[in-house]
DNA sequence: ACAGGACCTG
DNA sequence: CAGGTCCTGT
């Protein structure tokens, strides 16, 4: 396969991708890192009550009493979420999902109530109550501390802008680096933690570098409060986790047990048939998204400056995705999912659907998909250097969960929700829009997935005949669109007088790419892998050859092309296997 | 853009 | 029968 160097993407483009990757990383909330930071902590959570002494006023005691009453109330009332009510809510706020369900209900399979093994529908147990109590206490403390911090910052010279929206500040302090008040330090610390977990002791160091903006007294107070906040949060996470792991066996789900086993032994997943379907790094949320998903594949000028060789995207024997395991993996994502019920409560409060999907559909970048007819007339094989892929500007970052406002404690709840691993595996019988989205992304890697591959990559889907064939139908439709586009552009090239198929390439700035990207990757959540460009190029050339050779008179002239393309499926990156991948996308 | 259905094939 | 294409309807 000697593809011409024309195939290479323009350097400038690569640069912009890289830059964006980094920027995105900087901007993305490091909450998951925060959580991860706290998990391996070896410090045994000291009694959280000592923290309350720090305030030393009866005000807290009163609040605490109130919280305990609330918690007790929560424990006495049955599960806050009945499937029925959830569905009612779903259909009112998200007609698409409702439609999906309706469709599902028309299927022969009976859509029964959700599985009872999920934890949230069994009544709360003692251990959970304790944990909840503790969690609530800690939340109170956190809020209190935040108030202190806010007061302190309002006294400082930079107080004016922060005073403008203390509520937003609260939320931000959870969504991003919570321990820094100064936005510059904030950014820097985010950059520092890009990919790596920074030890907490670094805070002191940070303080030394911080621009002098406040009176030293206030600064000291801020610093003290910051540390206290830091400690409180890590204790919250630690103790919650500790509670969940140490609770009586009856409380543990099978998955948690396997988590413990894995955590101690490191390897050996108990369920071979699913392969590594459940082996997902805890730190998934922190994985950069725009990085080429294939392990070991470099991104950037170096990789693109050389002719594209096949290893860019190894062609796999059908349905044998080799699991390039993240070394960090020692506990499956699903393992921590007994927080489900808690997550569900929080999700409800935060305006999320019961599956953890954001109930509002993610905002799409529609601007990138509307093109003038002049643009559409552009030939696929013409490199347009000036036309950088606008579509790759991450507009969606702005639209990140400005959730339906829940007046009380939104910041705190958001913070806690983010601290709790976003992992609720929710085995469901239906297919959601999120699944469709994921399937489309998978299409970049595999055009002809086997049903077993699909099962492996949708661990949260309860497969039956209908679901399987529906998913296969999806891919069939994907292919249909794909081949139609290919034929269209091949014919266009011919009518435009192109004679050498090698002149036809699909690049990131070609029109055909934009069409395909708009179809399979609406919203640009994903960086289209280079291997897809190669496949598309090849397909285009094959169509060109066939049509220009006049083979299209044969009714089955496309079959040989299909056959070629069907052999070019590649491995799908592990990150797409994650059951919460759609959520990850929506959260981004 | 998706689903349903007819029809083909191994 | 599973899985594929093609056509059609919304």
Automatic annotation (TrEMBL):
Keywords: DNA-binding, Homeobox, Nucleus, Transcription, Transcription regulation. Its main location: nucleus. Residues 40-51, 162-180 have a biased composition (Polar residues). InterPro entries: Homeo_prospero_dom, Homeo_prospero_dom_sf, Homeodomain-like_sf, Prospero_homeodomain. The keyword Membrane does not apply. It is found in: Nucleus. Residues 359-378 have a biased composition (Low complexity). Residues 1-55, 100-125, 153-212, 291-326, 351-378 are annotated as: Disordered. GO terms for biological process: anatomical structure formation involved in morphogenesis; cell fate commitment; central nervous system development; embryonic retina morphogenesis in camera-type eye; hepatocyte differentiation; lens fiber cell morphogenesis; lymphatic endothelial cell differentiation; pancreas development. SUPFAM superfamilies: Homeodomain-like. Gene3D superfamilies: Homeo-prospero domain. Pfam families: HPD (PF05044). Residues 200-212 have a biased composition (Basic and acidic residues). Residues 428-586 form the Prospero domain. GO terms for molecular function: DNA-binding transcription factor activity, RNA polymerase II-specific; RNA polymerase II cis-regulatory region sequence-specific DNA binding. GO terms for cellular component: cytoplasm; nucleus. This is Prospero homeobox 2. It comes from Cricetulus griseus. The gene is Prox2.
């Amino acid at each position: 396969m000697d593809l011409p160097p024309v195939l290479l993407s323009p350097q400038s483009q690569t640069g912009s991708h890289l830059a964006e990757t980094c920027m995105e990383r900087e901007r993305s909330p490091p909450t998951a890192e925060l959580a991860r930071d706290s998990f391996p902590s070896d410090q045994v959570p000291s009694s959280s009550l000592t923290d309350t002494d720090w305030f030393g006023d009866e005000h807290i005691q009163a609040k605490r009493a109130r919280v305990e009453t609330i918690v007790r109330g929560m424990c006495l009332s049955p599960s806050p979420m009945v499937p029925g009510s959830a569905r009612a809510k779903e259909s009112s706020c998200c007609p698409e999902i409702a439609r999906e369900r309706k469709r599902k209900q028309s299927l022969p399979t009976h859509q029964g109530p959700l599985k009872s093994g999920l934890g949230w529908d069994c009544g709360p147990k003692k251990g959970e109550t304790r944990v909840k109590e503790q969690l609530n206490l800690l939340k109170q403390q956190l809020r209190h501390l935040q108030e202190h911090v806010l007061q302190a910052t309002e006294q400082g010279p930079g107080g004016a802008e922060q005073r403008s929206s203390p509520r937003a500040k609260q939320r931000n302090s959870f969504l991003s680096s919570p321990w820094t008040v100064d936005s510059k330090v904030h950014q820097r610390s985010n950059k520092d933690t890009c990919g790596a977990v920074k030890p907490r002791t670094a805070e002191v160091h940070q303080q030394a570098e911080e621009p002098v903006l406040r009176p030293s007294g206030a600064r000291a107070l801020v610093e003290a409060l910051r540390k206290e906040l830091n400690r409180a949060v890590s204790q919250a996470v630690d103790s919650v986790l500790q509670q969940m792991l140490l609770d009586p066996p009856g409380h543990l789900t099978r998955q948690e047990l396997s988590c413990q086993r894995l955590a101690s032994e490191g390897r050996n997943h108990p369920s071979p048939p699913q392969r590594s379907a459940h082996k997902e790094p805890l730190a998934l949320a922190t994985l950069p998204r725009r990085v080429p998903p294939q392990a070991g594949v470099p991104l950037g000028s170096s990789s693109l400056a050389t002719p594209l060789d096949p290893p860019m995207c190894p062609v796999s024997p059908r349905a044998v995705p080799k699991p390039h395991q993240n070394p960090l993996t020692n506990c499956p994502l699903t393992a921590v999912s007994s927080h489900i019920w808690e997550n569900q409560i929080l999700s409800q409060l935060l305006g999320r659907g019961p599956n953890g999907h954001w109930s509002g559909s993610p905002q799409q970048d529609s601007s990138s998909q509307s093109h003038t007819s002049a643009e559409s007339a552009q030939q696929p094989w013409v490199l347009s250097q000036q036309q950088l892929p606008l579509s790759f500007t991450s507009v969606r970052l702005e639209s990140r969960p400005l959730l339906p406002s829940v007046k009380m404690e939104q910041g705190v709840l958001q913070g806690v929700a983010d601290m709790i691993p976003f992992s609720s595996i929710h085995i469901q019988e239906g297919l959601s829009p999120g699944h469709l989205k994921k399937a489309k992304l998978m299409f970049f890697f595999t055009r002809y997935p086997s049903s077993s591959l699909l099962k492996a990559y949708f661990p949260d889907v309860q497969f039956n005949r209908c679901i399987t064939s529906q998913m296969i139908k999806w891919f069939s439709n994907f292919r249909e669109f794909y081949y139609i586009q290919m034929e269209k552009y091949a014919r266009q090239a011919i009518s435009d007088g192109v004679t050498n198929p090698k002149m036809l390439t699909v690049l990131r700035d070609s029109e055909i790419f934009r069409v395909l990207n708009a179809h399979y990757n609406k919203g640009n959540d994903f960086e289209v892998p280079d291997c897809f460009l190669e496949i598309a190029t090849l397909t285009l050339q094959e169509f060109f050859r066939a049509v220009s050779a006049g083979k299209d008179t044969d009714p089955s002239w496309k079959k040989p092309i299909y056959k070629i393309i069907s052999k070019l499926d590649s491995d799908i990156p592990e990150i797409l296997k994650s059951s919460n991948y759609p959520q990850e996308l929506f959260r981004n």
